[in-house]
Here is the input.
Amino acid sequence: MNTKTNKTILLVEDNPDDEELTLLAFEQNNIFNTITVARDGVEALDLLFGPDNQGGSVDPSIVLLDLKLPRIDGLEVLRRIRGNARTKFLPVVILTSSREEQDLIDSYSLGCNSYVRKPVNFAEFLEAVRQLGLYWLLLNEMPSGGRAP
Here is the structure.
């Protein structure tokens, strides 16, 4: 799959190793979309909504969201994304190493679109990222570019 669309990906990940692994997996799968990285929940919300909550500097087509984040955790980021009229339809994929069943339940209760546990095996992780890219960047359709009408 060799993709380059105008769709931006917001990767919210505080672990530098997982960030590097995710970026490498996109590269290995020839997914060359713009990827903006936020390293905690506050940074993610600032990028999405800006300091005045009127609009941030990033308008992603998808958010890949870790749950265990400093300052504001991923579930609160998801809650705020779903609570904002401008971003309530924005696809959010939880990409986490959490094995806690409650995290899975809470993520779907708050409106995540998908929940993917990060495989520890790199080959499996490459395949998971390939499938994420294929589906969310090429096949999935959203109203009004993922924004509320």
